[in-house]
Give the backbone structure.
Amino acid sequence: MVAVAKLCSRVDALTRDSLADSENKTKMHLAFVEMLQASLWGNQTDLSMFPDLNSEALEEMQARISSGENNSKIVANDTDRIWKIVSQLQGGRVDIVLDNSGFELLQDVLLAHWLVSLGYAQKVVFHSKRIPWYVSDVTNEDFFWLVRAAQTPSLIGTKGISAEDEAALAGLGNQWSQFLANGTWELKDELFWTGPYGFRYLPTEGKDVWDNELTKADLVIFKGDLNYRKLIYDLEWPISTPFVDALGAIATDPRAPAIVALRTSKCDTITGVDPDRAKELFAKQEDWMYSGQYGVIQLSPGRWQGI
């Protein structure tokens, strides 16, 4: 809980600092990079692979993100192209297709908080699962529990937390509750996410979700390994296959939003990796694709072609 409170306090300060100097585009870019990478590496905390994560490990992870130490672990990185889209949004809509509850969900919520607070997104729609596909998948109750726990840190214990960090955490929780109440944030749990179809079939088999939700968004962020596998149809693509080519109709539909994948790689299928880079990785660590130590930040621009 100490690591959670420190993280929330840092993001609260980062958001306030960004608001105070919003004309400084370089500072805004750097803040966005940190927030996006925090959401990416939050996926590394999947307890099915790393069951012994503790507060110290989470603090070390956050330090590596802030210092840029983790950059070499991102094997395909479209962050700058994504920023070009986000920086042009003025009150846009961002959707986040969630993965794991717990620390990863917190990082996703903090990213949404930053986007709304800075005015890039006027609305954020979170897509949870009606039932867990895996045991740790986010359900609506997980999401609401996180907000309640942030509002009232004493619910889960405040031992070791400074008064300043506790106040920042509670303040964020109250803002998130307001976002949900006034419609700035919405939470939806469509059945499609726990159905049998790969995401390339969204325009046909998930027509309600595609037509009425995702195509209304400017940017859709898909979180985690399972969502990534369903994005690329869980096939053994040649490793250099462009990410866009593996997506099918959700990349080519004229109405398609920008699609972003934030994925820590935990299985042996991946796209969009330079062959020379892949060769280096295999020589260094044979199991790099499924070790949970490497990640991708990938973009399909959709109707933002030319970015």
Notes: The beta strands are 74-77, 92-97, 121-127, 185-188, 219-223, 258-264, 295-300. The domain at 19-139+182-304 is CATH 3.40.50.10880 (Rossmann fold).
